[in-house]
From TrEMBL:
PROSITE patterns: PASTA. The chain crosses the membrane at residues 12-34. Gene3D superfamilies: 3.30.10.20. Residues 40-80, 103-122, 135-166 are annotated as: Disordered. InterPro entries: PASTA_dom (IPR005543). Residues 44-62 have a biased composition (Pro residues). Residues 71-136 form the PASTA domain. It comes from Micromonospora sagamiensis. Keywords: Membrane, Transmembrane, Transmembrane helix. CDD domains: PASTA_pknB. This is PASTA domain-containing protein. Pfam families: PASTA. The keyword Cell membrane does not apply. Residues 63-76, 145-166 have a biased composition (Low complexity).
């Protein structure tokens, strides 16, 4: 009679190889499921943020001679009505927008923003000067002239600082 130990020495190797192949297939399937979005299209890897785009040519000092003109970045105008003047100016600074203020009489407390030009929600280019209409309060007019209540009084102007990104 033959010994049974000599005939089946390869069986554990075969079982281990099949088990590894099954695990590798399951791992690959799981990786594909995680990598694919819910719409069934593979997602592209997200780019890492970079501080400045790379340049493709040598630096030049003159204006470009070919290509379309680039449009400046635009930001939505925030709703500043009802805010104190200092808070509205700080918000515009963070967005990279300039501002100027006009004083008008109103029923609102003095120093409160009662209007803006452009209006809230409009998209404006970076560096745009925004007009803040600020309440003078509701005291009696300084002169009996009817124009006094409707004519704006400029009080402060500030240009945006370069490099302000928010």
């Amino acid at each position: 009679m033959e010994e049974q130990g000599d005939r089946r020495w390869w069986m554990p190797i075969l079982v281990a190889s099949v088990a590894l192949a099954v695990l590798a297939t399951l791992g690959l399937g799981l990786w594909l499921v995680v990598r694919t979005g819910s719409d069934g299209v593979p997602r592209a890897p997200e780019p890492s943020p970079s501080p400045a785009p790379p340049t493709t040519g040598p630096p030049t000092t003159g204006p470009p001679t070919t290509g379309a003109a680039t449009t400046p970045a635009r930001v939505p105008m925030p709703d500043l009505v009802g805010l104190p003047r200092s808070a509205a100016e700080a918000a515009l600074d963070r967005l990279g927008l300039g501002y100027r203020s006009e004083l008008r009489r109103s029923g609102r407390p003095a120093g409160t923003v009662i209007g803006t030009e452009p209006q809230a929600g409009e998209r404006v280019p970076l560096g745009t000067d925004v007009t803040l209409v600020v309440s003078e309060g509701s005291g009696p007019p300084a002169s009996p002239t009817p124009d006094r209540t409707s004519a704006p009084t400029p009080t402060a102007t500030r240009a945006p600082t370069t490099g302000a990104t928010g």
